[in-house]
Amino acid sequence: MLSYRFACATDPGRVRPNNEDTVRIEPDIGLVVVADGLGGYNAGEVASRLCCDTVAEIVRTASTPRAADERLRSAIEAANQRIHAHAQRHAAYHGMATTVVAVLVSGEQLTVAHVGDSRLYRLRHGRLVALTRDHTLVQEYIDAGWLHPDDIHHVDYRNIVTRAVGALPAVTVDVAKHTVQAGDTYLLCSDGLTEMLSDAEIEAILCNAPLGPATALALIDAANAAGGSDNIAVAMIYCTNTGGSPHAHADHHARWT
Which SUPFAM superfamilies does the UniProt entry name for this protein (predicted)? Predict the structure, then answer.
């Protein structure tokens, strides 16, 4: 039987005055959520926090048993409605929204749901693979053959997302399932990490840093060393074959959860 351990860390980076990224981990139900708020000073922070809180609330209190994919999808849809309604009621928050990537792990199954450009990666046998696909204008141009992936960092529209939680009355959520293996490490992160570090650089850190909280901090330190142009949020899930149930305690200062 697989067992899971969780670690996370957030940092404002070296440019932004406040941190609009939020991480939420609920170890007892195997839930991890990373959200990157949009909408200017304070509003983005409100949106990301509302998203994480709502997803956790809905997943935990679902009144009828449902599959993990439906639980995550309905939770993010509920977060979308809550954020959009909050923005309509409060002028200071008009236009706020957030990206989100949320994971549920149970047994040998991982279910991921995401909106926007916050990502989920899997490290297996030393190889890093992205398990989500960004909802961005850049990705649409790449898919259409109008932009080469190597040219991403040379365009000024690379941070434009085409989907966000709370931006519109309804949202389309991408959901997928993956089979977990003992020894897997899963990384959820905001684009504050992936804008600063290439997949190869992230892979090298995950392979070479001590497992767990130290790795979360190493990723943030590397992103800051590369410029730290945005807030950075990372959450890690490590899967082991020692048996038992998901365990440990949550902390946003990069300790095991």
Answer: PP2C-like
Q: What are the two backbone dihedrals, phi and then psi, of residue 3, each rounded to the nearest 5 degrees?
A: -125, 150
**For 29-38, how does the pLDDT look when each residue is reduced to its tens digit (9 = 90+)?**
999 999 999 9
Q: pLDDT digits over 93-147, tens only?
A: 999 999 999 999 999 999 999 999 999 999 999 999 999 999 999 999 989 999 9
**Backbone φ, ψ for residue 92 (5° rounding):** -65, -20
Contact assessment for residue 12 and residue 231, using Cβ atoms and an 8 Å cutoff: yes
Q: What is the pTM of this model?
A: 0.92
Sheet holding 3-11, edge to edge: 127-130, 119-124, 185-189, 232-240, 3-11, 253-256
Buried b (16+ CB within 10 A) or exposed e, 179-215: ebeeebbbbbbbbbbbbbbeeebbbebbeebeebbeb
Q: Which domain holds residue 43?
A: 3-246
The domain tally of the chain equals 1
CATH number at residue 85: 3.60.40.10
Within the chain, strands assigned E span: 3-11, 21-26, 31-38, 97-106, 109-115, 119-124, 127-130, 174-179, 185-189, 232-240, 253-256
Query: Radius of gyration over alpha carbons of the chain, in Å?
Result: 17
